Amino acid sequence: MPHHNTMARRALLQASALYWIGSGLPARAADAAQAPALMLAQVHTSRHPLAGHWVSEKYDGVRGYWDGQQLRTRGGHTIAAPAWFTAGWPTQPLDGELWVGRGHFAQAVATVRDQRPDQAAWRAVRYMVFDLPAHGGRFDERIPALQAVVQQIAQPWVQAVVQTPATDAAALQSQLALTVRAGGEGLMLHQGSARYTAQRTEALRKLKPHADADGRVIAQVPGQGKLAGRMGALWLERPALDGQPAQRFKLGTGFSDAERTAPPPVGSWVTYRYRGFTDKGVPRFASFLRVAPGPGF
């Protein structure tokens, strides 16, 4: 029982911390006006060609855009990184992921969202740089340029994402399986001939073993039977997705005992897995994956 209570307290603290990312972090007008124009990925499918593409790991952290002066999230929020973390960085923009390690997404989010940076926590963060938005050349040309920039920065927490040439579908699936078994989230594929485009594009694609999306918690459903006294399910509202309209649905599977004891609060965001959609546009076989940071991250 003491162990169970400890797990519940940890789940509550994590849910509470991430809740404030989704619903309470102030989106200042200045931040919103300067939200970076980023290159966003489409989902990779078997119909996409592999020739001329580069493959890298999809890092499970917080997107970090260095505008030449400061770090910003995907939504434009200023990231209060310690001065030493970005000391000596170039004036040209960098695009990358603020990453703590495989399986430590919540730690990365909690560290990045803190407007009073925890120096010790930031020591665990790595900036995995994967692109140079203002370079102007093809991705084939941006790779060596990016490596040169990272080498010039010469800080161990700033690393160039390793890119390897894609070969065939079998090798790609094998690389995906190895990455996931090691605790990774998936892979990214980048078209070598593509220039950096500030939009969602098939020139940048993501490959994961399952589809996932985020939804906002609008209600908690009390559990019954063996779940009496705990959360039985969550009512979620998801935005329009993959051509499907916005939809509300109940999410009742994938939760641990600790998460049911201290569930994500109303107003927070969660990530769920799913397999396509029903005729009514509801995610099929949806299962809870984790608490999500919410829009803008």
List the helices and strands and how they pair.
Elements lengths: L1 H22 L5 H5 L6 E4 L9 E6 L3 E5 L4 E2 L10 H4 L7 E6 L5 H9 L5 H4 L3 E6 L7 H15 L4 E3 L3 E2 L3 H13 L4 E6 L8 E8 L3 E12 L8 E8 L8 E5 L5 H5 L7 E6 L12 E6 L5
Parallel strand pairs: 1-10, 6-7
Antiparallel strand pairs: 2-8, 2-9, 3-4, 3-5, 5-6, 9-10, 11-12, 11-14, 12-13, 14-15
Give an overview of the whole structure.
The protein is of the alpha+beta class and 297 residues long. Helix content is 26%, strand content 29%. The protein is built from eight helices and 15 strands. The protein has a five-stranded mixed beta sheet with strand order 1-10-9-2-8. Strand 6 (126-131), helix 6 (139-153) and strand 7 (158-160) form a beta-alpha-beta unit. The longest helix has 22 residues, at 2-23. The radius of gyration is 20 Å and the shape is globular. Residues 1-33 have low confidence and may be disordered.
Class from helix and strand fractions: alpha+beta
Record the strand order, biggest sheet.
1-10-9-2-8
Give unreliable regions as ranges. Answer: 1-33
In oligomeric terms, what are we looking at?
single chain
Distance between the termini: 36 Å
